[in-house]
Specification:
61 residues, alpha+beta, 1 helix
């Protein structure tokens, strides 16, 4: 299982103004498990939710 969390932090205030997470489980050794593929899949899923605030992580197949 891999989880990606992105936090946007206000430079002026130093506080988190938005946070999003996504997680996925991929079979080891498959093309879908390659680091670049997993990162792109999770980053896309997290940012599709921006700027909506969600509780918990989005599950990505």
């Amino acid at each position: 299982m891999t989880e990606l969390t992105i936090e946007l932090v206000s430079r002026a205030e130093g506080r988190v103004v938005w946070r999003g997470s996504a997680l996925t489980a991929q079979a080891d050794g498959t093309p879908d498990d390659a680091p670049g593929a997993v990162a792109a899949k999770l980053a896309g899923a997290v940012m599709r939710g921006f700027p909506e605030v969600r509780e918990g992580a989005v599950s990505v197949p």
